[in-house]
TrEMBL record:
PROSITE patterns: DAGK_PROKAR. This is Diacylglycerol kinase family protein. Keywords: ATP-binding, Cell membrane, Kinase, Lipid biosynthesis, Lipid metabolism, Membrane, Nucleotide-binding, Phospholipid biosynthesis, Phospholipid metabolism, Transferase, Transmembrane, Transmembrane helix. It is found in: Cell membrane. CDD domains: UDPK_IM_like. It comes from the Bacteria. It comes from Paenibacillus planticolens. Its main location: membrane. InterPro entries: DAGK, DAGK_sf, UDPK. Belongs to the bacterial diacylglycerol kinase family. The chain crosses the membrane at residues 29-47, 53-73, 94-115, 135-155, 167-200, 212-231. PANTHER family: DIACYLGLYCEROL KINASE. It is a multi-pass membrane protein.
Length: 234
């Protein structure tokens, strides 16, 4: 009985070390964990039903499991074939394809599950019906750009804050404007999907770390909502 417990504990420790290694060394795993945390937090905030939460947990688990398998395949191929080889490339590409399929499933689940809460939030928002000119929208985007520049020049050079991404700030600001003023929620979701694609593209190109991209997206959405809320109260 004691030997069985020790083997189980040893297996659990090895599995934990595998997860820890993936988080420490794999950029995509860090990204998946951060996104999973934000999605689960949004699910709790939106008070989703049990069935929707189960689908979200399934998508998150599938995403993390496929990324772990992809990491294992990559390391095994590198060990067996250090030099470039067509078969080694195929093995890595197929493993990466499994991650892509699970990511697509997670995106579809997220859009279906969060559609009704987002639709209700937009319908209850009083900003959507306010009359704002096109010039005001351009001034709003300029305000977002100015905010990012001020944060970069005021705080980032002193090491107090990570440099926010200007492109993600503008992308999520525009997506927020579209979400507020369109009458169809699906259009708002598509706008945020395009902004998220810009986010992922910049992350894949390693132009900025994840915190910088996330901070830029947060600044773009927050400044837009606050500014339009102030205009709506005038």
């Amino acid at each position: 009985m004691t030997d069985g417990f020790r083997k189980w504990r040893r297996s659990f420790r090895y599995a934990y070390e595998g997860i820890k290694y993936a988080l420490d060394t794999q950029r995509n795993m860090k990204f998946h964990f951060c996104v999973a945390f934000l999605v689960l937090l949004a699910a709790l905030f939106a008070r989703l039903p049990k069935t929707d939460i189960l689908f979200i947990l399934l998508a998150v688990t599938l995403m993390i499991v496929t990324e772990l398998i992809n990491t294992a395949v990559e390391k095994t191929v590198d060990l067996a074939m250090p030099d470039r080889h067509p078969l080694a490339k195929i093995a890595k590409d197929v493993a990466a394809a499994s991650v892509l399929v699970s990511a697509g499933f997670a995106v579809v689940v997220g859009m279906i599950v969060f559609y009704e809460p987002i639709d209700q939030l937009l319908r209850e928002s009083g900003i959507r019906h306010s009359q704002v000119s096109a010039g005001t929208i351009w001034l709003l985007i300029a305000l977002v750009i100015l905010t990012v520049i001020v944060i970069e020049t005021r705080f980032s050079d002193k090491g107090k804050l990570v440099r926010p991404s200007l492109l993600t700030a503008v992308a999520f600001s525009i997506a927020t404007v579209i979400a507020i003023f369109v009458s169809q929620t699906i259009v708002a979701l598509l706008a945020y999907t395009l902004a998220a694609l810009i986010f992922i593209m910049l992350y894949d190109k390693k132009t900025r770390p994840f915190p910088a991209l996330f901070l830029g997206a947060l600044i773009g959405a927050a400044v837009t909502i606050l500014a339009l809320s102030c205009l709506n109260m005038l």
